[in-house]
């Protein structure tokens, strides 16, 4: 009996292993996101107060194969029906990246699918395209996460012009370090936001860094120092909640001010907010209010696609494949990878 050939498909499988989440997703050009799965290592790293790179890489090794199989089953596909296999090639933890890249390369060789290295930040910038309401190019993007805080003009896939970025700590990093100073468990950002929700406004006030001068750069290290200076006055649990609220307001208002300034300077009328801090409710509320009063369009990915995930990698991989973007000849893994070096799709 002659086996039937694989069914035609436009599906791309995405693998994300840049840090402490093992994630797999499948995006189809005709049918959209078919399935996605994620395993977080947060509980394992909580004991150490942060991500341990070697442990992260080892855990990816034990998780990725089963997650790929589970995601294929959920999508109703076989591996040999995939048109492409995208993986996060950087930036990130080099050992973790190599796990995802090696698995993707092996699967691509076994199935004949196209191997597609994806820039992690490009995945974040394109994540709103996974939603039913998606922005048109060009748009302004605020990418705000644990490792990055930047403003970019996005004119298309691979066409990114960074117009402002942090000079020191990223906003998410400032959240995590402040949470640690407050004695909150890892990961600290969401815990600080939860504590801030019980705070009372006015007990503490911190500066809105670099908003009193022209420009689109950010700086959060001084804000973190201001919190540490005020910490001895935060004696009671309510004091700590008040301090957390004052810090969260300072960060989110700074981000909102710079976004509005960038919209004015670029003349753009669409704003995309991506990255883990993009899930922060206070930031979303501030920007939604600004969008209503200043008449610009605002786009967020759903919260689960703000943090690291494979759906954004699968989508970015599909966009690269559709643009006939050639893949690297071997496994690409780059701990550092400037966004402006990407080629247009």
Labels describing this entry:
Nucleotidyltransferase, domain 5, 5-stranded mixed beta sheet, 2 domains, 345 residues, alpha/beta
Structure description:
There is one protein chain. By secondary structure, this protein is α/β, with parallel strands linked by helices. It has two domains: 11-126 and 306-341, ATPase, nucleotide binding domain (Nucleotidyltransferase, domain 5); 137-300, 2-Layer Sandwich (Nucleotidyltransferase, domain 5). It has ten helices and ten strands. It has a five-stranded mixed sheet, with helices on both faces. Strands 8-7-6-9-10 form a five-stranded mixed sheet, with helices on both faces.
How is the topology of this model organized?
Blueprint: E1 11-16, E2 21-28, E3 32-40, H1 42-46, H2 53-75, E4 84-90, H3 94-111, E5 114-119, H4 120-126, E6 139-144, E7 149-156, E8 159-165, H5 171-181, H6 188-196, H7 221-230, H8 237-266, E9 270-274, H9 281-294, E10 297-299, H10 311-322
Parallel strand pairs: 1-4, 4-5, 6-9, 9-10
Antiparallel strand pairs: 1-2, 2-3, 6-7, 7-8
Helix pairs in contact: 2-3, 4-10, 5-6, 5-7, 5-8, 6-8, 7-8, 8-9
- Any idea what the CATH superfamily of the largest domain is called? ATPase, nucleotide binding domain
CATH topology of the largest domain: Nucleotidyltransferase, domain 5
Order of helices and strands: EEEHHEHEHEEEHHHHEHEH
What's the count of strands?
A: 10
What sort of overall outline do the alpha carbons produce when their principal axes are compared?
globular
Name of the level-1 CATH class of the largest domain: Alpha Beta
Radius of gyration: 21 Å
Structural class: alpha/beta
Strand line-up in the sheet with most strands:
3-2-1-4-5
Question: What is the terminal-to-terminal distance?
Answer: 42 Å
Structural domains: how many: 2
Helix content: 40-55%
User: What profile does the largest beta sheet have?
Assistant: 5 strands, mixed
- Separate helix tally: 10
Q: What ranges have pLDDT less than 50 throughout 5 or more consecutive residues?
A: 1-8
Mean pLDDT across residues: 94
Strand content: 15-25%
Annotated CATH architecture of the largest domain: 2-Layer Sandwich
């Amino acid at each position: 009996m002659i086996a039937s050939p694989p069914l035609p498909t436009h599906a791309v499988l995405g693998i994300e292993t840049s840090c402490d989440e093992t994630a797999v997703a499948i995006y189809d050009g005709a049918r959209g996101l078919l399935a996605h799965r994620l395993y977080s290592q947060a509980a394992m790293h909580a004991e150490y107060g942060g991500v341990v790179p070697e442990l992260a890489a080892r855990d990816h090794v034990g998780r990725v194969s089963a997650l790929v199989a589970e995601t294929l089953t959920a999508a109703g596909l076989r591996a040999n029906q995939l048109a492409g296999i995208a993986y996060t090639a950087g930036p990130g933890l080099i050992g973790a990246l190599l796990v995802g890249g090696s698995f993707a390369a092996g699967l691509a060789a076994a199935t004949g699918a196209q191997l597609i290295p994806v820039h992690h930040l490009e995945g974040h910038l394109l994540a709103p395209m996974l939603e039913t309401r998606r922005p048109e190019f060009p748009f302004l993007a605020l990418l705000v996460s644990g490792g990055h805080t930047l403003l970019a003009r996005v004119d298309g896939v691979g066409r990114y012009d960074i117009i402002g970025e942090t000079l020191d700590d990223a906003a998410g990093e400032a959240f995590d370090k402040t949470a640690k100073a407050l004695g909150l468990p890892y990961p600290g950002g969401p815990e600080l936001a939860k504590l801030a929700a019980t705070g009372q406004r006015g007990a503490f006030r911190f500066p809105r860094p670099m908003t009193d001068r022209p420009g689109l750069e950010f700086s959060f290290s001084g804000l973190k120092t201001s919190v540490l200076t005020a910490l001895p006055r935060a004696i009671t649990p309510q004091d700590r909640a008040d301090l957390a609220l004052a810090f969260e307001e300072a960060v989110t208002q700074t981000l909102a001010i710079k976004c509005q300034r960038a919209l004015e300077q670029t003349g753009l009328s669409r704003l995309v907010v991506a990255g883990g801090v993009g899930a922060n409710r206070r930031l979303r509320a501030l920007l939604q209010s600004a969008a209503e009063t200043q008449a610009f369009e605002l786009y967020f990915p759903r919260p689960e696609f703000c943090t690291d995930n494979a759906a954004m990698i699968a989508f970015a991989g599909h966009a690269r494949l559709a643009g006939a973007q050639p893949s690297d000849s071997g496994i690409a893994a780059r701990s550092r990878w400037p966004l402006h070096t990407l080629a247009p799709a």
